[in-house]
Write a structure and sequence with these properties.
The chain has about 120 residues and is α+β, with helices and mostly antiparallel strands. Helices cover about 40% and strands about 20% of the residues. About 20% of the residues are buried.
């Protein structure tokens, strides 16, 4: 039975792939594993071999982050960035925020899965 963290990671990976993320794991069957000593890892591969990538490595990949959040900050139609809150932050700002939080899976849940737009 999967725990909540694993479910969030699975949905975030699916979203990144749907948005065009390309990585070796996108060509193979993959599975999320919650390991006590290493945190969450993703195993992927086939009968030729199985490979492992740590969640931290994956989520801080610029290509992965671009697939989740896009490249540029977005502002309300007709407004420039001066003095207006962003409608959506681009991947660089999201990575800068995520590196500072303790619970990165919660951050992904709140800023990818729960956030609309």
């Amino acid at each position: 039975m999967r725990n909540m963290n694993e479910e969030v990671v699975i949905e975030v990976i699916k979203k990144a792939i749907k948005n065009g993320f390309k990585h070796d794991l996108t060509h193979y069957k993959w599975e999320v594993q919650d390991c006590d000593t290493e945190g969450i890892i993703i195993d992927y591969g086939d009968s030729e071999g199985v490979f492992t990538i740590a969640l931290e490595t994956l989520i801080f990949s610029h290509d992965f982050a671009k697939a989740l959040w896009g490249e540029k900050d977005e502002y309300p139609d007709g407004f420039t960035k001066t003095g207006w809150p962003k409608v959506r932050q681009g991947y660089k700002n999201q990575l800068q925020e995520m590196v500072l939080v303790e619970n990165r899976i919660k951050y992904l849940n709140d800023n990818v899965l729960l956030k609309k737009g």
